[in-house]
Amino acid sequence: MVRGNASITNISVGATRRVARAFITYFATTTGADNYFAEGYIYLSYKCVYIARLDLHNHTQIRPSRYNDFINGAVCERILLMLKRMLVMIAVLSAVFVVARAQDTATEESAPEREIYTALGYGDGVFEPDIWYASASEQPSHTQATWRADGIGGLAYLDYIHFDEGVAFSQLDAVFNDGWFNATLSNYSVWRENTRCDLGELRLIEFSLQTNSIKYNMRYWIEIVDDHRVLTMFVVFPAADEDNLNTYSESLFPELSSCSGAVG
């Protein structure tokens, strides 16, 4: 009978089984072993050590085969220490991987979306890429996006305006006044407001425009996005092309595509 020292004989059988199984499974997995029978399932009894066979293909224990030759306590100690170190290493590497992955996920979730993508996103599924050409820019005070379709005479423009001191719907008239529209519509020689209507915190203003003897119709939306952001967006088409104006307006703001029938 071989005596093991106190550090071995006081270790529970269940704990040793778990250590050995984890080590052998890890070894077989990382080496690509399939029908691999490992002479490594270490079983500690109170005063002796024997080795049983383990089928790592299905991770089930085959009938233990007792060996007549027992290994001494010092060898058991070294084997057990090796297994424990291996298990600790695996646990540490797994923990590092989990923490790194969690940090990457948290960074992805916490990082705010660039506002330029928010602006361009309004055109997704609305302005066909083979018809409309998109461009955008970011500035400290606002973010802009433009879509042009020269083949059909269409123009769409979005302005995501920053109000660092805050803004409310009741302040829109003071901000978006004649001076604002004189600057916004300066590329047109003549502009005239036809009608306006509100729905919640969304406002629509319809204009008639003219430049170089060509007449256009414009629909101009103003929406409070939050306490510090206001969205303005307009769509322009030649006055003779009411169909396209209606189609794109309905895609952009289906709840308020025109003031026809709306209560202003």
Q: How does the SSE layout of this entry go?
A:
Elements: H1 6-9, H2 13-30, E1 37-44, E2 49-55, E3 60-61, H3 73-110, H4 115-121, E4 133-138, E5 142-149, E6 154-162, H5 172-175, H6 178-184, E7 190-199, E8 202-211, E9 214-226, E10 229-238, H7 242-252
Antiparallel strand pairs: 1-2, 2-3, 4-5, 5-6, 6-10, 7-8, 8-9, 9-10
Q: How would you sum up this structure, described in words?
A:
By secondary structure, this protein is of the alpha+beta class. 34% of the residues lie in helices and 31% in strands. The chain has seven helices and ten strands. The chain has helices at 6-9, 13-30, 73-110, 115-121, 172-175, 178-184, 242-252, and strands spanning 37-44, 49-55, 60-61, 133-138, 142-149, 154-162, 190-199, 202-211, 214-226, 229-238. Strand 8 (202-211) and strand 9 form a beta hairpin. It starts with 5 loop residues before the first helix and ends in a 12-residue tail after the last helix. Residues 1-11 and 32-71 have low confidence and may be disordered.
